[in-house]
Design goal:
With about 400 residues, the chain is mainly α. The chain has one domain (about 1-404): Up-down Bundle (Na+/H+ antiporter like fold). It contains 17 helices and no strands. The model has no long low-confidence stretch (mean pLDDT about 80).
């Protein structure tokens, strides 16, 4: 768990810096935050390419992947619905539950839906859990629930700004990427060493940002924003592995990260993953900015802390559905560990809050959401420790069955 501890410390340092730097740099921090976001996305793309590289897809079990998507959809929908209801009936204006009250709550509460795939995979691998049933299932569910989050943001955006053709483009691109992964699984022979993978990550982020900026010139209200998580993952799935290599040979080693197994590759992945974890913390919104604190009724520090605690609890309870399914596949401790493993939130949730601010939404709901996201991020190392403790007590014969 040494690397998990290091990652946790880097997260906290990044979070502290995210609150200090805006005050130090003032208006100049806006440009710096854009650079931080791009670097964070590049780190996420690098990790997701490696996750795709090690991904195994059994095309004879399409029905099971359909069920996985249903489970992932609930793991994204339940936290969203629970938090939205809390925002409307507890933090919303007293006696006001009109559609206009629901709209901002539905957008803001979506921060609770997506598991932070990059953070989760880095932490689980660092804890030596890559060879477990939990990791293999979490790899599918976390990607699916992030995908579901992106898809559902389309109708939520329609609620805020109306329908636009750009949203249809996003759906078509996502469908095309999934088709590429299915058809060309591990068939594209390109270099797979970490410097090349980093260059692929940079290219994916660059294309995404160029499309975003260009579409914003066409319509500033509804730009085309392709989340890099899916294209990066798909690239990894179609990359051909070197002949004779076993991408899972080192999975059970604590500190192992996704990607090629050689010492130099693991060292490169460790450095980039460490930087990414720090940047995720650094990418958090300024909790004391005017955008968050000067809209709507003001709450005392004690009440904010109470609401943050409640939202954190109910958003994580919403992730517990995976613990009640997969009864034929896994021990109850593995299923519980899987649900807890889905708790970490991060860069995607932060992106949703930034989107909400762009729609002019602010006040206590955004403040509570941002603080809850921060608390969850700080506790990521604790969640992974609980997960590992649960997995350690799973009977040996059950674990042997998974590895056979």
């Amino acid at each position: 768990m040494k690397k998990v501890l290091i990652f946790s410390i880097l997260l906290v340092i990044g979070l502290v810096a995210s609150q200090i730097l805006p005050g130090l740099f003032g208006e100049d921090y806006h440009l710096m935050s854009e650079v931080i976001t791009v670097l964070t996305l590049t780190g996420l793309a690098f990790i997701m390419i490696h996750v795709g590289y090690e991904f195994e897809l059994d095309k004879t079990k399409l029905r099971s992947y359909g069920w996985d998507y249903v489970v992932a959809m609930t793991a994204a929908a339940f936290p969203w619905m629970f938090v939205a209801i809390y925002f409307v009936y507890v933090l919303g204006p007293e006696g006001a539950t009109s559609w206009e009250d629901w709209k901002p709550a539905l957008v803001i509460s979506r921060f609770a839906a997506p598991t932070s795939a990059g953070v989760l995979f880095s932490m689980l691998a660092a804890a030596g859990l890559s060879s477990t049933w939990l990791f293999k299932k979490a790899r599918v569910l976390a990607i699916f629930d992030d995908l579901d989050t992106v898809l559902l943001m389309i109708p939520l955006s329609v609620l805020m700004v109306g329908f636009a053709w750009q949203m249809g483009v996003v759906v078509l691109v996502m469908a095309g990427l999934i088709a590429l992964s299915w058809i060309f699984l591990h068939r594209w022979s390109i270099p797979v060493t970490w410097p090349y993978v980093l260059s692929y990550a940079i290219a994916i982020v660059a294309v995404s940002e160029v499309v975003y900026i260009a579409s914003k010139l066409v319509d500033s209200q509804v730009p085309i924003h392709i989340e890099i998580l899916l294209p990066a993952f798909v690239l990894g799935t179609i990359m051909k592995r070197p002949a004779g290599s076993d991408p899972h040979a080192d999975d059970s080693r604590e500190g192992h990260l996704e990607g090629p197994e050689s010492e130099s590759e693991q060292k490169g992945s460790s450095i980039i993953s460490s930087i990414f974890i720090f940047l995720v913390g650094l990418n958090m919104p300024d909790l004391f900015s005017d955008e968050l604190t000067q809209k709507g009724p003001q709450l005392s520090a004690g009440m904010i802390a109470f609401h943050v605690l409640m939202v954190t609890i109910i958003s994580n309870l919403g992730k517990m559905f995976p613990a009640f399914v997969y009864r034929r596949e896994a021990h109850w401790k593995e299923r519980l560990a899987l649900a807890i493993g889905m708790w970490p939130r991060g860069e995607v949730g932060a992106g949703i809050l930034i989107l909400a601010l762009g729609y002019g939404i602010g006040g206590s709901m955004v403040t509570v959401a941002a603080l809850s996201l921060t608390v969850n991020l700080v506790l990521t190392g604790v969640f992974i420790w609980i997960v590992k403790a649960l997995i350690r007590t799973v009977p040996d014969d059950v674990q042997a069955m998974h590895s056979s």
